[in-house]
Structures
1.
Amino acid sequence: MNDNPLPLNRDELLQVYQTMRTIREFEERLHVEFSRGDIPGFVHLYAGEEASAAGIMTHLRQEDRIASTHRGHGHCIAKGVDVKGMMAEIFGKKSGVCAGKGGSMHIADLDKGMMGANGILGAGAPLACGAALAAKYRDNGDIAISFVGDGASNQGTFLESLNLASIWNLPVIFVVENNGYAESTSVDWAVACDSYVDRASGFGMPGVTVDGTDFFAVYEAAGEIIRRAREGGGPSLLECKMIRFFGHFEGDAQTYRASGEVDDIRANRDCLKSFSKTVTTAGVLSQSDLEACDAAVLGLIDEAVSTAKAAKLPTKADLLTDVYVNY
Amino acid sequence: MARIISFKEAINEALDQEMTRDSSVIVMGEDIVGGTGSPGEDDAWGGALGVTKGLYGKHGNQIMDTPLSESAYVGAAIGAAACGMRPVAELMFVDFMGVCFDQIYNQAAKFKYMFGGKAETPVVIRTMVGAGIRAAAQHSQMLTAIFTHIPGLKVVCPSNPYDAKGLLIQSIRDNDPVIFCEHKSLYGVEGEVSEESYVIPFAEANVLRDGGDATIVAYGMMVGKALDAAETLAKEGVECDVIDLRTLSPIDMETVLESVENTGRLVVVDEANPRCSIATDVSAQVAQQAFKSLKAQIEMVTAPHTPVPFSPTLEDLYIPSAEQIADAVRKTHN
Amino acid sequence: MKQNIIPILMPKWGLTMEEGQVNEWLVIEGAEISVGDEIIEVETDKISGVVEATDTGLLRRCLAKNATIYPVKSLLGVLADSSVLDAEIETFIEAYKIPDSGEDDTEESIPQYMFTEVDGLRVRYADRGSGDSVVLLLHGFGGDLDNWLFNLDALADKHRVLALDLPGHGESGKTIPEPSISGLAKFVGKFLEVVGVPSAHIVGHSMGGGIAMQMVTECPESVKSLGLICSSGLGPEINSDYLQGFVETQSRRELKPVLQQLFADESLVNRQLVEGVLKYKRLDGVDAVLRTLSATLLSGTQTILSDKAIDSGKAILVIWGEQDSIIPVAYAQKLADSGNSSVEVETFDSAGHMVQMERANDVNRRLLEFLC
């Protein structure tokens, strides 16, 4: 018998690595393409935050719903949204997951339970409560996750949602992805409580804080609270303390960060590096397993970009469609 | 069987019958049951003005009180709709839309389009509109224009009990987000309503009166005033067409244009403030599409560019009157 | 002398009419009036119609004003011989009171429409008049018992008259257990049982006529005689454009020309009539009912029911409007030509498919003659 001290088996761990690597390469590649001027509008990159998305989404099934932030690519990929479709969407192509009508900030796939990245911070929290309400009515054990950043954690919608979820005992998890910065503003300045655990208890629900760059820490904490929600135990708040490698948006000069800060976190707080170290040290996956995965992911991203670039843009006829189901 | 009931009873009946027919129709709002968690009666209020009284007894947890958190519960209704439920959320007074407008106009209205067609958001937001009960500036507005402006929303505003029931049932069965406006001053108005369930399609204006000399277009509480004005004018030998728009988005311009092409004279009546309103919208569309038929300038009868005043004398001056409407028609004959 | 003064009253068309608006006098004061002359155009919230003279005389007074609403049975005018003095007419007018306007109004206390249950389905019906001789009126496709609004009271003068809303129609339940002519015939037979009427003169209009004939097969003891008005079941042809139009159209604009096919005088299809049909079509369940029934009516060749009905030997009166564009008047003419002694046939000019409305007085008169 293999001696596997980790909570997931070999295949599952490889899947987790693949998810995180896909997110990483997707975002790194977007950074490059954006700087070339090929991507319209805004993008907000998730690189560095992969462990949060993967640690949580590994517990979810397709029917569970998530409501994401403006920084939604990582959530999408971890929830199973098609990577090529995402890339095409970000390039504004008709073959995109939203037919080119949404773009990076509104990327969604309801079939996969991904209720959308949101351009309005905090707006996903009530929507996730709604998904949880539907699950409660149907009594099917489904749950919903509302992702917010440290910035949006101050938005009225988020705070109202915490209260609503508690009084209605909704199967919804509020995940605060605290990467320390709300655009350029530090969490230390903007958030009144010292710990999100206090904010959770202020709204009558349990709260947990974990190191969001440690996949296994996220996985364990998330597993517990998701199980509780599925069983009718109500909402919880999970704070993932993490870092983002890139700016708030692409084009952000990030002068609000300390000099050398980004280099430092890339070197010392890279969740992919720590995951790799853990799984190889435990002897469950080998370096060559991981490298093979890396190559496959890079191939997928390459293909996604070239397909997206070659794909057709929407036409005038597409401008007026899908405003209503029928009018 | 058709019998006489009030506007508010017609709405109650629509909700009741739809909740019975379809268990995915869930109804929520502040004090909509009234008394939740309180030591006295269940269903103590049944809504601020009693519109939803009795529904809790019949439908139990299909109807629920919400905390004072419009963006959370309106947003939850929207999120639940995106997951296949058919929620009906009450925004107690349309004047409160400010605290939850994002969920309505940036989320619900835009899901279908932004997500490339895949989303459906069959949510109904019922809300009280209009002046006349001395509720003052923050509880008396007619904000239909703001919702009408947003692509992706539908806006409905019935003027009588029969229309209220049919249009609310239609709204609940519709697969797009609908803002269902209930004029608070019409709640007591009575009319003939069938006991059975029925629908009235959107984008079908109702022609309440045929005349031929002038066209009066109105919606909501103004419809009654338009009819009164038409009676007065009939005695002066001026016979008016009176058109009740019923739905503002989608809107039935065909019926309006057909009438104006015949009469050549148009008066649009709108209880809202005068800038950027349903009145300006209808007027502009008619001016553009039926210009050659017009024999006179288009007249609009609206509230003034002020908040709704409190004192009864002032509020009565604020609300457009039948006499003002008749005067406007006379002006088109000068 | 007072017997020579004949009041012209606001008629009561249908069970719920309480008032009507006088639109126009069609004759002037002083005119010589004969029976059947059209005197006044009247409009209710359901329909427009014409008051016809039921007597001969001189039109001495036109009291009603145009564009004015009057309660049912109001005095609208006075007919009298020229020998009657003006003073007597004045006295008559002053003394006239609308009957049944008091508190213990027996007519008001009888419910206008009644409801019962047949095979678990709610049925609305009207029950007017009294006596052992019962007439049952059956409306047609998409109609309801108010199709008989100009006929009910005239017939109820001499007979007990029942009229029901067929399943899926009017205010009866909106499902049809057996959506076929024979299913409906059985249902009507059961209805008669439920209301305790062993047999009746069955008068059917359009599809109702087909049902009446089918009752001869399903429940022959309940059929005393047959009145067939513009009836289905006498021949294969039926205006499928009309049927499909009735089923498919969703808007006022589209429905109006469809309904106009029912009448010789298209102007009878006013806004209120179209509204009334639309309101019915929009009730839950109606669309499904109409689709099923119209498919039945249009399916292949229509079963010819008349042979069996005629063979039964029961007395039959066939009435038709000569301008009927839904079911050809030729079918009536064919029966007339067949020379069958148990079959009487009469057709009326200036009337289409809704002859019982457009030539109401004549249809009533002919029916009463037949029923005696």
2.
Amino acid sequence: MTWIWLNLDLIWDRTFDHLVLSVPAIILSFVVALPFGWLAHRYRFSRAVVLTTVGLFYAVPSLPLFIVLPFIVGTSIRSPLNLIIALTLYGVALMVRVVADGLGAVDRDVRQSATAVGFSGWSVFWQVELPLAGPVLLAGLRVVAVSTVSLATVGAVIGAQSLGSLFTDGIQRGIQAEIIAGIIATVLLALALDGALVLLGRLLMPWTRRSATGAVSRTSAALLEATI
Amino acid sequence: MIFLTETFAWLVDPANWVGASGIPTRLAQHLLFTLVTLVVAGAIAVPIGFAIGHTGRGRSVAVATAGAFRAIPTLGLLTLVALWVGIGLNAPFVALTVLAIPPILAGAYTGFEAIDRKIIDAARAVGMSEVQILLKVELPLGLPLLIGGLRSATLQIVATATLAAYIADFGLGRYLFEGLRIRDYGEMLGGSVLVILLAIVLEGVFALVQKLVVPRGVTAGRPTDIRDGSSRSRAVMEPAIEEGNNNVHSK
């Protein structure tokens, strides 16, 4: 315990490093996954191609990816950018399937009604399909946020600073409190980002507040766990 | 591009294919470790998952636990257990078993939950005992999702076993850490390529198994869809075809 009080500054610095890695990755995952998810949802052929590709990406273990990626995209191994790109790839891999499923779950009658009252294809997507898929997307993004925060710690073994540095430093110097502090800080950070996403969801989708979306997102989270 | 040739040179160097630190030995360690961890985690998680799925009790606890476990950083758990039990294989074994349990558990109970309740009721109505329902109805129908859970657990174990080379001298991960330490690009990239290939091959095997275990009745099912489709096309197509056939016969 004393170690934690004496090193609050260090923990805070690493938490900041961690945020710099994970927040851009989470946002980018969502942005990049949208068009690919749409592509997977829209055409049968692209669905097979896109979903198989992201499935394979998701299968790639993180540490080898962190090492191989710099040689492909030309960043340095320890640079935060390398980690952000790798984490984004995982986020996209998870999120594309969610986007495709979320869009697929929108009632076809609703889509046709929107077309019938004069929505263009573009505005059907932005004003009808996307908001209706919202709760599913939110559930998926919460999973992405939590797993990104957890995964970012792995970068520490190749020298990229994050809360994971507390683990590598802790084991090298034999300080148990440092590792425990790192675990707690990582979990708290994940919970904080998860909570922030829930709040954001309530702001953007006020209509979901009183309905049973809690149950829906819990089920889809469990299904995600099992299927991905 | 120079890295590509270095990687290739490392991968085909005969010296890397023999001995205690050779690729076959390390690959075998990696695979064996994955298998043992998977079996132990499965032995714990599958019965609990089946119990939750069959009775419907304890589900919310399982969901919350699975969510909490996802937030726990693998590396943190690995290093913490290593401090407790010492450097070696025990720490990764304990840490990985713990991490592999949630996906298997989720696969086991979501597999049961996805089954139409009417099927279970029908099974009970024709006089099946609870054990028979479990083994003859729920198990085969829930198997694809259970395999899905095993699949994501396996991926996680393979990935984390690579990471475990940080604290134990075993598996393909050794090449990554050794290559990083001595700045041998060929070795670290070659090792990475091997781990990635291993993961993708295992993913493919599981995808195949997942397809194969779907009971035949399920793939053949959805009778309403089939009837819908055939009756609609018959209404349009049949006269034309019969006319054609008649013409052929009459000539």
